Amino acid sequence: MATGWGSLLQDEQQLEELARQAVDRALAEGVLLRTSQEPISSEVVSYAPFTLFPSLVPSALLEQAYAVQMDFNLLVDAVSQNAAFLEQTLSSTIKRDNFTAHLFDIHKQILKEGIAQTVFLGLNRSDYMFQRNADGSAALKQIEINTISASFGGLASRTPAVHRHVLNVLGKTKEAAKILSNNPSKGLAMGIAKAWELYGSANARVLLIAQEKERNIFDQRAIENELLARNIHVIRRKFEDVSEKGSLDQDRRLFMDDQEVAVVYFRDGYMPSHYSLQNWGARLLLERSCAVKCPDIATQLAGTKKVQQELSRSGMLEVLLPGQPEAVARLRATFAGLYSLDMGEEGDQAITEAIAAPSCFVLKPQREGGGNNLYGEEMVQALERLKDSEERASYILMEKIEPEPFGNCLLRPGSPARVVQCISELGIFGVYVRQGKTLVMNKHVGHLLRTKAIEHADGGVAAGVAVLDNPYPV
Ligand code: ADP
Ligand code: MG
């Protein structure tokens, strides 16, 4: 795999000038974040961190990631409808993980009461790294799938112009033209619009559940703007607002401030810290309603790391996607090694192997949002501590993916431009809509490339580790 922009990275003076131009273009394009000092206000904003150059990605892997996205949509949707699979898969985890247990309680309660929702909307992002093979080639390996609050579709629509600008400044017009256009926010909005339309109430709103301190608001606004262009109105509210002003009528239609809600789009609610007791109550109210939740609680559970690990068991995909051997083969080709830590021989063996070869594994709890996984010596210590406790079932072990590092220059507000050794993570956005048992939409709608310095094992853009990037197909 060719790895980079070679001599361009050595000319420090040129890099500085290029960086200045790139930052101005990023600001002009709206590649923006609120600042960490003022996360509740848009008065002062800055650019979202990004790479100076697009990073080289083999076209075959990009195509493979796009080609498997509809299969992942089908798989997530199938898991979300399979209550027995979810119950069995999560049974040991929920004994030891309060957050997953709380989500699961709501799921059970909804099943008992009967699901009022008839239209289902999935907006997800499947993330991959490029495993370096012994022969120097690279293989696409899934890191995880995000079924709630998958972000950066909005900003990813705006970064291609920035990288084209950089290459055009260098007179590399042919190279600039190779940067793929990308508009995930449009596709995500299309899914929301379809769900809204099928809900079938002309004056109903889309309710976006947001946090007050939201640095990534412009990413969300990109989707809101697309919806407004289709004459669909979005109201942004917090869980606390739902507790105060949300209600259900006798048909379990959801109302917020007396406005009917067709679709609830969560950009919050994926971490324990997002929930007070009151917020859990609000989540339950939303789930009980017939509004289209994106995601509904079962689909959120389908995105847990424990589910990911169980899906990799031999024969499991065949059970969940019967009669679809080609989809099963495409999906399985992207799976890395995944190991259960449930009590028993299988878990014991995985722990022994990970302790013996810590650099080959990652220990993952059931958490989202970056910065929760354990690597190396920290992982070994955790495994030693957990080994004889049932608490270990709230984690999974995963094979550590080792991509080939390459040089790129990372740009962040307040830091000098730095050329460092990097690795990338590719995400593909997927959208599906189901009405009753009929799938009415199943698409891929764009990509996100994030790149980080190799010294960081974990963490995404929001966690301050990775930066936005574009694939340069080779
Ligand atoms: P989260 O839900 O917190 O985003 P992830 O599973 O995506 O959890 O892990 C966070 C980050 O850790 C990823 O973005 C990636 O950089 C790194 N990571 C996760 N799994 C692996 C793995 N198997 N091999 C190498 N790096 C990994
Ligand atoms: Mg992730």
From TrEMBL:
InterPro entries: Glutathione_synthase, Glutathione_synthase_a-hlx, Glutathione_synthase_C_euk, Glutathione_synthase_N_euk, GSH-S_sub-bd_sf, GSH_synth_subst-bd, PreATP-grasp_dom_sf. It is an enzyme of class 6 (ligase). CDD domains: eu-GS (cd00228). Pfam families: GSH_synth_ATP (PF03917), GSH_synthase (PF03199). It comes from the Eukaryota. SUPFAM superfamilies: Glutathione synthetase ATP-binding domain-like, PreATP-grasp domain. Substrate binds at residues 125, 148-151, 214-216, 220, 267-270, 450, 461-462. It catalyses: gamma-L-glutamyl-(2S)-2-aminobutanoate + glycine + ATP = ophthalmate + ADP + phosphate + H(+); gamma-L-glutamyl-L-cysteine + glycine + ATP = glutathione + ADP + phosphate + H(+). Gene3D superfamilies: 3.30.1490.50, 3.30.1490.80, ATP-grasp fold, B domain (3.30.470.20), Glutathione synthase, substrate-binding domain superfamily, eukaryotic (3.40.50.1760), Glutathione Synthetase, Chain A, domain 3 (1.10.1080.10). Binds 1 Mg(2+) ion per subunit. GO terms for molecular function: ATP binding; glutathione binding; glutathione synthase activity; magnesium ion binding; protein homodimerization activity. GO terms for biological process: response to cadmium ion. GO terms for cellular component: cytosol. Its EC number is 6.3.2.3. Keywords: ATP-binding, Glutathione biosynthesis, Ligase, Magnesium, Metal-binding, Nucleotide-binding. Mg(2+) binds at residues 144, 146, 368. ATP binds at residues 144, 305, 364-373, 375, 398-401, 425, 452, 458. Belongs to the eukaryotic GSH synthase family. Catalyzes the production of glutathione from gamma-glutamylcysteine and glycine in an ATP-dependent manner. Glutathione (gamma-glutamylcysteinylglycine, GSH) is the most abundant intracellular thiol in living aerobic cells and is required for numerous processes including the protection of cells against oxidative damage, amino acid transport, the detoxification of foreign compounds, the maintenance of protein sulfhydryl groups in a reduced state and acts as a cofactor for a number of enzymes. Participates in ophthalmate biosynthesis in hepatocytes. This is Glutathione synthetase.
